[in-house]
PHP domain-containing protein
Amino acid sequence: MPSVHLHVHSEYSMLDGAARVGPLVQAAAEQ
């Protein structure tokens, strides 16, 4: 299975989180 390393700030980033994990994964899968 191929993988891609992404540098994102999710809802789990203490001060920088804006994006939710589910939509990030879905957007990455669509690309």
Notes: The longest helix spans residues 21-30. The chain has a mean pLDDT of 79. The chain has one helix and no strands. The two ends are 16 Å apart (CA to CA).
